From TrEMBL, chain A:
Molecular-function annotations in GO: phosphoribosylformylglycinamidine synthase activity
Main location: cytoplasm
Lineage of origin: Bacteria, Bacillati, Bacillota, Bacilli, Bacillales
EC assignment: 6.3.5.3
UniProtKB keywords: ATP-binding, Cytoplasm, Ligase, Nucleotide-binding, Purine biosynthesis
Organism, as annotated: Sporolactobacillus mangiferae
Complex formation: Part of the FGAM synthase complex composed of 1 PurL, 1 PurQ and 2 PurS subunits.
Gene3D superfamilies: Phosphoribosylformylglycinamidine synthase subunit PurS
Signal peptide range in chain numbering: none
This protein's name: Phosphoribosylformylglycinamidine synthase subunit PurS
Keyword Transit peptide: no
Compartment list: Cytoplasm
From TrEMBL, chain B:
CDD domains: GATase1_FGAR_AT
Gene encoding the protein: purQ
SUPFAM superfamilies registered for this protein in UniProt: Class I glutamine amidotransferase-like
The keyword DNA repair appears for this protein: no
Entry-linked InterPro entries: Class_I_gatase-like, PRibForGlyAmidine_synth_PurQ
Species this protein is from: Sporolactobacillus mangiferae
Pathway(s): Purine metabolism; IMP biosynthesis via de novo pathway; 5-amino-1-(5-phospho-D-ribosyl)imidazole from N(2)-formyl-N(1)-(5-phospho-D-ribosyl)glycinamide: step 1/2
Protein name: Phosphoribosylformylglycinamidine synthase subunit PurQ
SUBUNIT field: Part of the FGAM synthase complex composed of 1 PurL, 1 PurQ and 2 PurS subunits.
Compartment(s) of residence: Cytoplasm
Keywords of the record: ATP-binding, Cytoplasm, Glutamine amidotransferase, Hydrolase, Ligase, Nucleotide-binding, Purine biosynthesis
Amino acid sequence: MKKVKVFITLKESVLDPQGQAVMQSLHNMEYTNVKDVRIGKYIELLVEDSADVAEQVDTICDKLLANTVIENYRYEIEEEVHS
Amino acid sequence: MKTAVIVFPGSNCDQDMYYAIKDGLGEEVDYVWHAETSLDGYDAVMIPGGFSYGDYLRSGAIARFAGIMPAVIQAAKEGKPVLGVCNGFQILLEAGLLPGAMLKNKHLKFICETVDLQVKNNDTQFTKLYDQDEIIRIPIAHGEGNYFCDDATLKKLQDNNRIVFTYSGKNPNGSRADIAGIINETGNVLGMMPHPERAADALLGSDDGLRLFQSILNHWRESAHAAYTS
C-alpha cells in the first residue's frame, strides 16, 4: 500500500480572506512579525500498489481534489508501513 | 415546457424553484434526483441552490460527479436552457460548463439580503423581458459567491457580452468585475449567485425574478413554434 499526502494551496494570484483574518488575529496576539498567512488543505489517500499511482493521483487531483482555476497541488507518495 | 429541477442531498432551494415554475409560470415541472441518469423529455434544466454534499471539499465539487451530471452536460450541449442558481452556479463552474471558480466572500460573512442587480445583457434567452441596464431587486444568500477568473477569461467574458448580471451600488462579496451572473458561449447555460426563484411573487417582496423564467418560456415557445413550422 502507498500513503499519498496531498497538499492543496491557493494560487499566489488568489486572495485568501481566511488567511488574512487569521493573520489579523495573530497580529492582535502581538505576533506582528507574521507577514502573511495562506490556508490550504491536506488530504491523505491510502492506495493499493500499482505502477501508475503517481499518474492516477495527478488525475484525481486535477479532476476532484483541487480546482486548478484557483488552487495548486503537490503530493508525496510514501510506503505505508504496517505496525 | 417541461422542466427538471435537479435535487442533490443538501439542495434547499429546490422547492422554491419548483413553485416558481409551477405556480409562477404555470408550466410542468418535476424533481429529478441526483442518482438518475437521464433527462430525456425535459426542455429545460434547473440546478437549485443549497449545500450539496455539505459543501465538502469545495462548493459543488462532489455534486459535479453525481450520476445525473453527464445528462446535464448533454442537455447543455444540445442547446437546452440550463440555469444554475447559487450552489447550482458553483456546480456549473466545477463541471466546466462555465469558466472561473468561487472563493469565500471577501469579508468571510455569509450574506443573506436583497440586492440591486444590473441587467448587463438583455439579449439572452434568460433576460429578454428585462430592459438593458435595468436595476432589479433579487435576494442573495451565500458564503462563497466571490467569483474569480483570470484576466484572459475576464476579457473573453467582457468582449463577448457574457456578463449577464452585475451587483449594482455595492459589491457584497468581492467578486471580480462585480459579476453576479455569466452565460456560456452558446448562450444557453446561465449561472448566477442571486436567487430569481425567491423573487418570483410580489408576496415575497419582489417579483423581479419571475421575468427570468418567463423569458426562458417565451424563448422555448418561439423556438418550438419555429421548429414546428419549418
